[in-house]
Design goal:
By secondary structure, the protein is an alpha/beta fold. It has one domain: Nucleoside phosphorylase domain (Rossmann fold, 3-Layer(aba) Sandwich). It contains six helices and eleven strands. Strands 1, 2, 3, 4, 5, 6, 7, 8, 9, 10 and 11 form an eleven-stranded mixed β-sheet that branches. Strand 9, helix 3 and strand 10 form a beta-alpha-beta unit. The longest helix has 13 residues. It starts with 8 loop residues before the first strand and ends in a 20-residue tail after the last helix.
Length: 269
């Protein structure tokens, strides 16, 4: 692998991001887990090499439950990536979290089923603590950047990751909301956990595109549709890019966070 195929920062997200990278090149990366979602685009932001993968594929041909999360994360690791940003479109479970806001989630609840969610299928077995699932260093950087850019954001929240591709029923949504959880989405798990298994720092940025089905009593409620999700996401794409570019410029040269040594003492001997 040449120096041109190396990157220190990775981004998963929509296909609008990489068109703003400087001097981009596309590469096909092989992994032991199959092909990533698409060709990987490598460019430059703030003097740092950045690798980008559209997690659903460039033509959005991969539904959430069919994304090869292991291949995507392994490809990033193979490129030398140490930091990953994972922006995603999400629904609000609480009236005070409004469409157009960003939530920098600090916790997740996994409600998926059947997704392959580890690199360690045996004979080596590991157990990694998930008490603090998102990188504290990257979260601080993203929050500082949002504040500087005057982006409307929430500094923490719990994202419920559902299987998809369907949206929640009203009863499911009410249940999620009754637990005090703030955000619902389809792609955070196992993406972020697999990054931790590879000792890669990972941060979530949830762009709220709609109120979920359980908020039908809220005066601004409209039943969630894919058209509305896409419309709000496109309207806020520039904010997402600005936030990512600002945050990438602040990434430190050295790491000492929990992510960088996640496998230490995690193996069962």
């Amino acid at each position: 692998m040449t120096d041109n195929q190396k990157a220190s920062v990775g981004v998963f997200g929509g296909s609008g991001f990489y068109s703003f990278l400087q001097e981009t090149e596309e590469y096909e990366i092989d992994t032991p887990y199959g092909a990533p979602s698409d060709k990987i685009v490598i460019g430059e932001v703030a003097g740092k090499k950045v690798a980008f993968i559209p997690r659903h594929g460039r033509n959005h041909n991969l539904p959430p439950h069919k994304i090869n999360y292991r291949a995507n994360i392994y490809a990033m690791k193979k490129l030398g990536v140490k930091y990953i940003f994972g922006p995603c479109a999400s629904g609000s479970l609480q009236p005070h979290i409004k469409p157009g806001q960003f939530v920098m989630c600090d916790q997740f609840v996994d409600r998926t089923k059947g997704r392959i969610d580890t690199f360690y299928d045996g004979p080596k077995t590991i157990h990694i603590s998930m008490a603090e699932p998102y990188c504290p260093t990257l979260r601080k950087i993203v929050i500082e950047s949002a504040k500087e850019l005057k982006i409307d954001y929430r500094p923490r929240g719990t994202i419920v990751v559902i299987q998809g591709p369907r949206f929640s029923t009203r009863s499911e949504s009410r249940w999620f909301a009754s637990q005090g959880w703030e955000v619902v989405g389809m792609t955070q798990y196992p993406e972020m956990y697999l990054a931790r298994e590879q000792e890669i720092c990972y941060v979530n940025i949830s762009l709220i595109t709609d109120y979920d089905a359980g908020l039908e009593g809220h005066p601004e409620f409209k039943p969630v549709t894919i058209e509305e999700v896409v419309r709000v996401f496109k309207e806020n794409n520039e904010k997402v890019r600005s936030l990512l570019f600002r945050a990438i410029s602040k990434i430190p040269d050295k790491r000492d966070c929990i992510c960088s040594h996640a496998l230490k003492d995690a193996a069962v001997n």
